[in-house]
Amino acid sequence: MKQMLRIAPEREALTLIAGTTYARVPSWYGFTREDLKMDIVLPKHTEGHAPLPAVLWLCGGAFCVVDRSVWMPQMVEFARKGYVVASANYRTSNAVPFPAPLLDVKAAIRFLRAHAAEYCIDPNRIAVMGESAGGTLASLAGVTGDLPEFEQGDWPGVSSAVQAVVDFYGLTDMSTLPDHSEDENVADWTMQAFLGGVTPEKLERASAVHYVNPSTPPFMILHGSADITVSIENSERLYERLCACGVPAEYCILEGAAHGDDMFFQEPVYQRIDAFLKKAMG
């Protein structure tokens, strides 16, 4: 059957730039260097295109594994809604402890801002978003802004501050773990490896709730009521702290959702996140 089709383009084509090096970090006991990679989804035709808000996505994996490709099919939904989406790897706890992964995330933010024109990004509208361990790191990146303590690595002099944060069930208050280990579901070995040994000082340093202040950017928090991996109390405490500091915050509890549940990656949730980001970043 031969047919002539008249198609009215309703959405622009997208392209994937895979395996972009955003930073080079020490590896193998400091004797070698490792390239940290990100994948970027952006409009196929960028010439003359208006700059778009960007979302940096961070995969979870108990701080010990990460794969930037795992959630990219879900993240394309945000590219369809008008965002440049980047998904980045970061160093894990089997290689180096905290704050190394946070330094990597902030380097990724600086890379996107430094190369904003190349990737059709508005440098004044960058959000960070992540799930589980990625939610922990996204939250930490959001609350530390340009804090000198964590401003190390590639692209110095470029701001790592973001304009919005979306935290999917991240571990954001670690300060109670030593005294309430029986009540928490995060494995002890996970925290030992991530922090390079557990002490109250290290737990506080890696807790996003510790850094929240009136200058913190708007937050959206998502957590499942049936999460037995990361206690929902983490999100409760973070939300309370954000509200106490006058930070715009939205907190969505997904009824019956477990850790990493498919429920988080449905169109009604995408729409709520999109509305939040538009409100937070304009």
Overview in brief:
This protein has helices at 72-80, 100-114, 133-144, 188-195, 200-205, 233-244, 267-281; strands at residues 14-27, 32-43, 52-58, 84-88, 121-131, 164-168, 219-224, 249-254. It is of the alpha/beta class.
Q: Can you walk me through this structure?
A:
The protein has 7 helices and 8 strands, in the order βββαβαβαβααβαβα. The protein has 282 residues and is α/β, with parallel strands linked by helices. The chain has one domain: Rossmann fold (3-Layer(aba) Sandwich), CATH 3.40.50. An 8-stranded mixed sheet has the order 1-2-4-3-5-6-7-8, with helices on both faces. α2 crosses α3.
Calculate the terminal CA-CA distance, rounded to whole Å. 48 Å
Number of helical runs?
Answer: 7
Shape: globular
What Rg is obtained from the alpha carbons, in whole angstroms? Answer: 19 Å
* Low-pLDDT runs: 178-184
Q: Find the CATH topology.
A: Rossmann fold
Q: Portion of residues in helices?
A: 25-40%
CATH architecture: 3-Layer(aba) Sandwich
Tell me the number of strands.
8
Write the topology of this structure.
Layout: E1 14-27, E2 32-43, E3 52-58, H1 72-80, E4 84-88, H2 100-114, E5 121-131, H3 133-144, E6 164-168, H4 188-195, H5 200-205, E7 219-224, H6 233-244, E8 249-254, H7 267-281
